[in-house]
Amino acid sequence: MHHFFVSPDQITEDTVCLEGSSVNHIKNVLRMGVGDRLSAASGQDDRLYLCRITSMDKEKILAAIERVEKKGSELPSKITLFQGLPKSDKMDLIVQKAVELGVWEIVPVTTRRTVVKLDEKKEKARLARWRAIAEGAAKQSGRMTVPMVTESMTWAQALSRAADMDCRLIPYELEKGMGRTKEVLGSIKPGQSLAVFIGPEGGFEEEEVRQAQEAGAIPITLGGRILRTETAGMALLAVLGYLLEG
């Protein structure tokens, strides 16, 4: 069943009204018609609206609500991924997979080894693209909310942003001891807010790791292999999802 997001004011007691780009997607891409079923969520709660299309025109599609379910597709902890900006289109993949794995928010971060330089015009265009990718991934994976992709920030701003989070993790290739990693991850409780810091290509500089530690972040290892920037975050998010899901 295809899944869509709508604003709360598009949901009444017995009908969901789909507008904007959803209309074109339903009619011209999915080739759906009157009588076909879809699901919808507002992104504001855990309610899933199971609907059947009753009418279609150029600007809107009406779908009758057949039943409402409470779907537990969100992790019990809000995880923010602070991702060092990578080169080329790697960020597209990172956003897509992080959303599928349950991340709550994605923050692009400029570190000392960041190669990508975004001027205001480029950042605006890329941010719009990343947010569209996040929405598409949220639809595909049946999320009840669309994770936010924020504007990029500096390393100092990222550390400040994470200051109030319950647990801050920074995978670091020079860190040793999987026992310590297992201990730290095993101590995380459902409901805690989590920050995950991932460096760009080339990783973090030692000074940045030191600054993160002073700000309360815990360095951990992800094993004996050095992972690419687009792999490291996904590996840790998958483990966190496994530990928190049940």
What can you tell me about this protein's structure?
By secondary structure, this protein is α/β, with parallel strands linked by helices. The chain has two domains: 2-70, Hypothetical PUA domain-like, domain 1 (Ribosomal Protein L25, Chain P); 79-245, SPOUT methyltransferase, trefoil knot domain (Alpha/beta knot, 3-Layer(aba) Sandwich). 34% of the residues lie in helices and 26% in strands. It is built from seven helices and twelve strands. The chain has helices at 21-29, 90-100, 120-140, 155-161, 178-186, 206-214, 229-245, and strands spanning 2-5, 15-19, 37-41, 47-56, 60-70, 79-84, 105-110, 148-149, 153-154, 167-171, 194-198, 218-220. The strands form two sheets. Strands 6, 7, 8, 9, 10, 11 and 12 form a seven-stranded parallel sheet that branches. A five-stranded mixed sheet has the order 1-3-4-5-2. β7, α3 and β8 form a beta-alpha-beta unit. α2 (90-100) runs parallel beside α3 (120-140) and α2 runs parallel beside α7. The longest helix has 21 residues, at 120-140. The radius of gyration is 20 Å and the shape is elongated. The two termini are 25 Å apart.
Question: What attributes characterize this protein structure?
Answer:
12 strands, 246 residues, Alpha/beta knot, five-stranded mixed beta sheet, Ribosomal Protein L25, Chain P, 2 domains, seven-stranded parallel beta sheet, alpha/beta
- Helix/strand/pairing category: alpha/beta
Rg, nearest Å: 20 Å
Q: Total domains, how many? A: 2
Q: How much helical structure, as a percent, in the residues?
A: 25-40%
Taking all residues together, what is the mean pLDDT?
93
CATH class of the largest domain: Alpha Beta
